[in-house]
């Protein structure tokens, strides 16, 4: 999923300069959901909606990456297995 941030942070990076990018999510827990906050100011769902989509996909055995869409060519790095954005690991089905 492409978005206007580099991925999921542990807190809002526009409000907390010490916010850290979460590179890998093994399981979507209540703590991860709390990191998402509310609806985004530019869209109609923000990270809460992205996490719901990631939860659906990973539950079906499909890994998910949420990354900044400003440079979509970074998708090649994702395909090469490099760390870009936040990677959500697929559950075994």
Task: Explain the overall architecture.
With 93 residues, this protein is an alpha/beta fold. Helices cover 28% and strands 13% of the residues. It has a four-stranded mixed beta sheet with strand order 1-3-4-2. About 5% of the residues have low confidence.
Descriptive key words:
alpha/beta; 4-stranded mixed β-sheet; 13% strand; globular
How would you summarize what this structure contains?
This protein is α/β, with parallel strands linked by helices and 93 residues long. Helix content is 28%, strand content 13%.
Q: Count of helices?
A: 3
Radius of gyration: 13 Å
Structural class: alpha/beta
**What average pLDDT do the residues reach?**
88
Gross geometry: globular
H and E order: EEHHEHE
Instruction: Work out the number of β strands.
Output: 4
Low-confidence stretches: 40-44
Gap between N and C termini, in Å?
Answer: 22 Å
SSE topology sketch:
Elements: E1 2-3, E2 24-25, H1 30-36, H2 46-59, E3 64-68, H3 75-79, E4 86-88
Parallel strand pairs: 1-3, 2-4
Antiparallel strand pairs: 3-4
